[in-house]
Write the C-alpha cells for this entry.
Amino acid sequence: MNKDKLKYDIVIVGGGLAGLCNAIHLSKFDKKVLLIEKNNYPKHKVCGEYISNEVLPYLEFLNVNPFNFGAVKIDDFQLSTTKNKVITAKLPLGGFGISRYTLDFELYKKAKENGVEILQDQVININFKKDVFTFETKENNSFTSKICIGAFGKRSLLDIKFERDFIKKKSPYLAVKIHVKGNFPKNKVALHNFKGGYCGVSKVENDVINLCYITNFSSFKKHKNITDFQENVVFKNTFLKEMFQNASPIWKQPLSISQISFEPKKPVENHIIMSGDAAGMIHPLCGNGMSMAIQSAQIASKLILNYLNDKLESRKQFENLYITQWNKQFNWRLKAGHFIAMLFRKDKIASFLLSILKRMPFLLPLIIKQTHGKPIKL
C-alpha cells in the first residue's frame, strides 16, 4: 500500500471507452496521466457494441484501428415494432461492430504503450481544494492532480457521494446482454421492439452475435427470472424469438445491469470533467452511446491540453467551454433519442410511424441522423 501522495497532471477515474481514449489522447502530448479502474482487463460489459463511423478519424488520430482487431463493417439497419412490423434502411454514415472485451483491451494496451499509469483500484473520495484534486482509494492510495476526469460510467458510488441530481431520481431500466453463435448478416444492425423494451442485434469480431436488450425493471420483476421474462415478453417479437431460439449461447449466463437512468447529467460536477456515460446517456434504441463516449474524450482532452498549456485564462473558462462544447455536440442527440424511444414505447404510435416510414422510406435515414454526428474533425 502506498500512502504517499503522488502528483499527476490528470487523474482519470474509470477505464471504459471515455477514460481510455482520454488517457491515450493526453499521453500523446507528454502529460503525466494516471487512470484508476476497479476492474481488470479484458472484461465483457453490457453494451450494444455498435459504433458509428463518425469516430474513425479520431481513433486513427489515437493510432487505434478497430478493423485490425476484427471489427465488422455495418451499413444496413432493420427496425421492428412490437406488432412485428419491420422496415429496413441504409445507415447514412455506417458503422462497425466490436465487443467491449476486445476494444477496451486494445485501448488499454495502447494507453500502457503511451506511458499511461493504470492502477486497478477504486476511488472512494475526491476532494478539490486550492485548485488541486486529492484522491483516496479503497486500497488506501492517495494521489493529487491538476485535472480530474470522471469516466466512471452509468452509475457509480461517487455519483451517490456527490449527490448528483440524476441519482436522486428513479433509475427504472435493466439491461441484459449475451453473445451467441448463429445466422445473422455481418453488415446489419437490428433493433427489435417488445413490450416495455427493445433489443439490439449485430455482429462483432470472430463471427459472434451480440444480443443486448433493455427493459423497464417494473416489467421484468413480474417474472421469475431472465429466461421466464424472455419467453413471455421478449419472444412476443417473432424476430427475437427466432434469433434467441436458433442461436447457440457462448456464455453460460447472460450479463445484466440494473438502475440505468437516462436523466440529464451535468458535464462538470465539483470541477470534475465528466466524460462518456458519466456526462450523459443516449437511449440504446438510437445505438450511438459508444460513439458519444469516444467523442466526449476528444472534446475533453483538447480543452484540457489548452488549459494545462495556459491557452485558457482560468479554470472557470475551461469548464464553461467544456459544458458549451459538450452540449453543442450532444444535447440535441440526447433529446432526439429520448423522444424517439418514447414514441416507440407506445404501440399504436410506433405502428403509425412505421406505416408512414414504409410509404416514405427516405425519412428513416433522416431520423437516424438526428442521433448521429458527422465524422470528427481533428
